[in-house]
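User: I'll paste a sequence; please echo it back and then give the predicted structure.

Assistant: Echoing your sequence first, then the prediction.
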Amino acid sequence: MSTVTAPNRWVTITSTTGLASVFAGVIVIQAVAIAQSWGGNYWLWTTAAALVVCVLALLRRRWPGWPVVVALLVAALSILIARLGELPAEPSPALALGLSVLVGAAIRNFRHRPAIAVAVAGLAVVVGSELAARPTAADIATVTVINATTWLAGVAVGSWLRMLDRRAEAVADDVRRAERLDVARELHDVVAHHITGVLIQAQAARTIARRDPEQAMDVLTGIETASSDALAAMRRVVGLLRDADGAPIEPTGAERLDTLVDHFRSQGLAVQLDLIDDDSDWPPEVRSTVYRTVREALTNTLRHASQARSVTVTVGQEQQAVTVEVVDDGPPVQARTHHRGGYGLIGMRERVETLGGTLHAGPRSGAGWAVHATVPLSARKPR
């Protein structure tokens, strides 16, 4: 199995490093400006407060809850100290920038009421900065304009990302639901097939028992086996819904995979197929899942790495599980992680996990992409 790393790891590292650089630059510029204009050691206090909030903003992914609360308290404390000590107005631009990132992240990730509470608390900081800066002036203080702008930016970006996340979750839920319905339809047909066999063998047993009771025992053994298969398939149906527009299972197996690979070869993919010789003992739902997993993996390769020089499809059996691996040598992962699709992968994982299996997909070390699925066969054993 090829080594697969988390596809978002480098994106997270890059974005965090970039944000840290922005914070550092703003803090340094702010410290120099305050030291030159205000004098004294005030720049030490305002820099320390801004540094605390900016570090909390960088830690928002690791601890999504308390950093924004602490940052709001630091902002409120800095306003109070500035007011009582007759110091330059707070929060400073660097502190306001870090707080904006935290407010946006909270609006994106928190539940509805906590998100609103954080947004209101951020607005209270803006109002507090104005009251502390110039409580009797007719115009708005510059620090208030900066804080209001950053607060609005945080709320706007957080709300926009929240909307995109909810939309993506809704689409993913639809994909999972459709895949579950598809699996339920197939398993329903499998169970119906087993029950029909049980019925036919039971009728035959009644006839044979009248002539040869010993031979009837062989028929009863077949009924037991068929019943066990039916129960195993029925367990997989539990929790799934039956699509009203039922359809028979697609023919699957080695001959269909050969045809599938030939289809992708005709579209320019250099696909190599390493296939187990005999899959006749696999349940129909397992064969169907293997076929669909290979099809989805090759489709993703054709869409996002059509320049891959080779694609290897390996289907085998390890003890009581079927393994599927699709590996390509496409471009580095950076060229493929910005794609906002991936719903086919969600459906593929849902299908595999419904049958008790596992699926891993992601970039390989160096270049290329790998999909590895394991689907158990143990469910066919009598229980």
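DSSP finds ten helices and five strands in the chain. Residues 1-7, 239-252, 334-341 have pLDDT under 50 and may be disordered.
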